[in-house]
Amino acid sequence: MSKNEVVMNPRKVAVVGCGFVGSASAFALMQSGLFSEMVLIDANFEKAEGEAFDISHGVPFTRPIKIYAGDYDDLADAAIVVITAGAAQKPGETRLDLVHKNINIFKSIIPEIVKRDFQGILLIVANPVDILTYTALKLSGYAPNRVIGSGTVLDTARLKERLGEHLEVDSRSVHAFIVGEHGDSEIAAWSSANVSGIPLHDFCEMRGHHDHEGATAEIAEKVKNSAYEIIQRKGATYYGIAMSVKRICEAIIRDERSILPISTMMDGEYGIKDVVLSMPSIVGAEGFISKVPISLSEDEIKALNKSAETLKSVLEEALE
Ligand code: 6V0
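^ thats the input. predicted complex w/ 6V0 below
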């Protein structure tokens, strides 16, 4: 080991960006017991400091963790850096509308991290998350397993919650994924959806629901529009994503090898290459381990390719 090499602290997390999403994520991470140290970084240092003070006052109710506002030197030895910095959607804006602003923000953040010889996992949360994960991957030069996006982990949670409600069953017993873009072209992978191993439509019949097409179309639409609905009412979404961040960090820190629809680089799966989007993936200590080839119908594969094309055209335009 060279003299200056950073030794990773496997119990340390850094959150870059302490707005609604960053502070809610930090609050969830504080309660998780996964970490013993958390540094909060924001362009507005006072904001990070205020959040660190506030969140640390909850520590006596959970497990010991040191929480403080810091700068990029403080994240060098973190196991995970969560990036939530960036402009958020305003009412009526799509996630893709944020692309230019947030790529520029990433051009200032990622080189700062790389300079510190950070050895851990980059978890991208800012939107458009797929485009920014791709950007972070290219700017950092890190191996693809170390740069992951929260992807459709949140959308998938929304889908499970809706289905659980519809079928009056624990949402944890629902196995279904949203794949593709975290955004308007996302796809509900109905063909592989099941409740504790029972194909979704059979389970629906059992529960007295017979209009499968109508119900699934309505649920998928509700899930897709969740963020718009929330932003219209309260200006931002942050609790659901905070729990998603906590869940992904848990899978990494505990090397759980959980299957989560994080966004990662596609490498020829379903004919899709050089674009980041979400597919169910094994997540553990190395970050992304491998994709899980769930069965998709022809229509779902077509929709996935369309989602990839949408993302590619935004990337091409953004990187021109
Ligand atoms: P916010 O409340 O405006 O917070 C953004 C924070 O980033 C502010 O505190 C800024 O000071 C800070 N910031 C801006 N530039 C920099 C910089 N260069 N360095 C450090 N800090 C900086 O936004 P909010 O927290 O609501 O949203 C943050 C991002 O998360 C947005 O891009 C959202 O669209 C995105 N979300 C992603 C979700 C997902 O599922 N992936 C879900 C919800 C929101």
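The two ends are 40 Å apart (CA to CA).
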